[in-house]
């Protein structure tokens, strides 16, 4: 009797390890399935993690006969439930909760920046933030906003929005580029109002004094059509 008890005790850890391995394989299978449907940019950081499966569930290995699907709309959400099914005998089926997190690169202030500061690369940094929390017109390229001015104080860690920037400010000297197909003519002017990216503002030609409407394309540059 003592020998039987000893053998049984010795076998239990191996059985537990085997079941744990099967459960982990199912988790990884669900994670891999979801990863094929996640929409993310090339610079995004994606984490996909399936919840632990109750090890009390006696699940058999299922080589070659395992399927998965996302029920309902089939869309991958922040919290997605994957229906995993074994079609072998004895078969089994269960839902595996999978959590998806996509972090997007956004430009933020490296340190507090007072309003009306001419932004320089050393003042800016790239931070990765949960896409669920990212709102508004943000930037993923530091150089895109170098040379702009902030219209309000900027705090570290918070995405810098286009609405917070003055790409061309009232009174700034600007380059006015008039374009028509392949023809391009540039002249100097003065901005008569503030403007951010792609915003239409009034500028005044320095030579003629004529006021025209143009589109802000980058820091210190306004484009108009001929």
From TrEMBL:
Supply the PANTHER family for this chain.
FLAGELLA BASAL BODY P-RING FORMATION PROTEIN FLGA
Give the family this protein belongs to, as stated in its UniProt record: Belongs to the FlgA family.
Localization of this protein: Periplasm
Gene it is expressed from: flgA
> Mind telling me what this protein is named?
Flagella basal body P-ring formation protein FlgA
Organism domain of life: Bacteria
Function field: Involved in the assembly process of the P-ring formation. It may associate with FlgF on the rod constituting a structure essential for the P-ring assembly or may act as a modulator protein for the P-ring assembly.
The UniProt record lists the SAF domain at 104-166
Q: Which UniProt keywords apply?
A: Bacterial flagellum biogenesis, Cell projection, Cilium, Flagellum, Periplasm, Signal
Q: Does the keyword Ribonucleoprotein apply?
A: no
